[in-house]
């Protein structure tokens, strides 16, 4: 009897540690990029709003108009702090609409917010806004990053250099480009062709420009062949994130129309990366988008789902849960319906 009780107690405690929790109830946020700055956890999410745009084609109903910054003093804190609006669409000279998933990097005490938005011609570009504080407010540069396109910037610091990763299919417009040049018409590769890749570029010293032409990131299967466009369970769709663990580089992303978070492992920021498996099975809602961060020697997955809005794809809520590796360094798959 004592044994059973001890087992139940232990399993309850361990379940409580693993279970995800929602981070914010009052407003809808999504696509959280989490970072530890000055010993605090900062979250840079998209700010979802209900919208008059009813047609979901190409993500038009993700019609966000501003960014907020959220923070936690520690991971267990019950109420996430909202620092309020830190950048508005109307204060970005070049942007017309759709402030999608952002990320932030710190360099020499300044904070750089990277964000996608559609310009006046309806093309997604990536902009930068700068602040002296992690919680903003941020001031946008007058123009987007020269040569930028598509969505979902994620900035990664490695050996003193900063790299920007980006790209997203369909609504994210990656099919409109080849070799960094716009096509006359968007063209999807056919199923047997190589899948479109996320992009990477070194950032300039001042963090405001690409210091090189964006390059393709190769994601390979177990035989060393690039993943094919028809491989919807494994190929890149959007929402790339990169982190290191035991000196290896983990590139994680959403598979979009199959709604999974998956990852691939490489040995430097440019790759190639070899596909490994699923991090998170589909959540409630069409999109899945995440970040992975080490906090106090433990690893966490920040993500979103649409359960609290009753499954409305464009009204998403932030979540966090512990992420675990097995003894070989593979990420243990988590259930998106938890
Ligand atoms: O939030 C708008 C878009 O939905 C993001 O940019 C994508 O990653 C997807 O989550």
How would you explain this protein's 3D organization?
By secondary structure, the protein is mostly beta strands. The protein has one domain (2-323): Glycosyl hydrolase domain, family 43 (Tachylectin-2, Chain A), CATH 2.115.10.20. It has one helix and 24 strands. It has one helix at 2-18, and strands at 21-22, 28-37, 40-48, 66-72, 81-88, 95-97, 103-107, 110-119, 124-131, 139-140, 154-158, 161-166, 177-178, 181-182, 199-202, 215-216, 219-220, 238-245, 248-254, 261-266, 273-280, 291-295, 298-305, 317-323. The strands form six sheets. Strands 6, 7, 8, 9 and 10 form a five-stranded antiparallel beta sheet that branches. It is globular. The two termini are 30 Å apart. Mean pLDDT is 94; it is low at 1-17.
The total number of structural domains is 1
- Measure the end-to-end span: 30 Å
**Largest sheet geometry:** 5 strands, antiparallel
Structural class, by secondary structure, is mainly beta
Overall average residue pLDDT: 94
Radius of gyration: 19 Å
Treating each run of at least 4 consecutive H or I residues as one helix, how many helices? 1
Uncertain runs with pLDDT below 50, 5 residues or more? Answer: 1-17
Query: How many beta-strand elements?
Result: 24
Shape field: globular
N to C succession of SSEs: HEEEEEEEEEEEEEEEEEEEEEEEE
Stated plainly, the CATH topology is called: Tachylectin-2, Chain A
Indicate the proportion of strand residues. Answer: 35-45%
CATH superfamily: Glycosyl hydrolase domain, family 43
Helical content stands at under 10%
